[in-house]
Amino acid sequence: MDVYLKPNFQSGPILFCLCPQEVETEQYYTFFLESLKGRGYDGYFCPKSRAKLVSEQERKHVDGCAVFFKTQKFTLVQKHTVEFNQVAMANSEGSEVMLNRVMTKDNIGVAVLLEVNRDLFSGGENRPVLLTEKQLLLVANAHMHWDPEYSDVKLIQTMMFLSELKSIAERACSSLTSDPSAIPIVLCADLNSLPDSGVVEYLSNGGVAENHKDFKELRYNECLTNFNCNGKNGNSDGSITHSFQLKSAYDSSLMPYTNYTYDFKGVIDYIFFSRTHMSVLGLLGPLDNHWLMDNNIIGCPHPHIPSDHFSLLAQLEL
């Protein structure tokens, strides 16, 4: 997934980040990082948690998530990895389903806190704009569990990730404000969840009911409050909420599918952004359906299309 960010008073080149999932460890270091460094990028990568448990040879083929960013346009402030199994263990509160269903999955998320370089900002005819504070940006990338039978795990992994992002933002802006939403966020993810899922409802609406059907009536109640934006002892009002005001870059009608296989076609990949700080200027649309049919492409990977996931690209104004 690619993200362009353009400050609304900038007349120079746009800012650029890439957020791929399912990148094999060896491919990251020998191909992606080397190739993109030659084009002015740096990156941060972490493999899935099982990489710690396998041999060095096997570790090369464990996939993970990465974030690449233009070093001319961003300065790296912090980098973070969120291992969902570790967060689940720390917040299980004695819940057997949390330990048996969530902790056993090795999915991860990564986040980089970036400072937008000041010399990129200009005020008409390339006159510099004086910024009184650092312009920070939090870019996050995650890959949630795949199995359709584990909608509860996907929803909890998403809650854990946003809870950790909230902590990152709070620590980063503690000297300026106590409001973590003061730092714009861009969240790219393979959520493995359809637009009508609890995961997308949670991200889009700012919360989801504690008894949402995607929890499958399993006993998560005690540990879910740990991820509420009001804290464990706050008023939950029967919902688990987050403090980021997020919006999907893609309208639900634009992309008929982001994952295109022989036996499944649907939207499961997303770009979310802080709607209070950014707006969408442009999007990469879907592949032409007539072209797919004319070439008899009924599933991917395919010689013409190397991945079963189609690329998302958003141009955002900051």
From TrEMBL:
It is an enzyme of class 3 (hydrolase). It comes from Oryzias sinensis. This is poly(A)-specific ribonuclease. Its EC number is 3.1.13.4. Keywords: Cytoplasm, Exonuclease, Hydrolase, Leucine-rich repeat, Magnesium, Metal-binding, Nuclease, Nucleus, Repeat, Transcription, Transcription regulation. It comes from the Eukaryota. One of its GO terms (molecular function) is poly(A)-specific ribonuclease activity. InterPro entries: CCR4/nocturin_mRNA_transcr (IPR050410), Endo/exonu/phosph_ase_sf (IPR036691), Endo/exonuclease/phosphatase (IPR005135). PANTHER family: CARBON CATABOLITE REPRESSOR PROTEIN 4 (PTHR12121), CCR4-NOT TRANSCRIPTION COMPLEX SUBUNIT 6-LIKE (PTHR12121:SF35). Its main location: cytoplasm. GO terms for cellular component: cytoplasm; nucleus. It catalyses: Exonucleolytic cleavage of poly(A) to 5'-AMP.
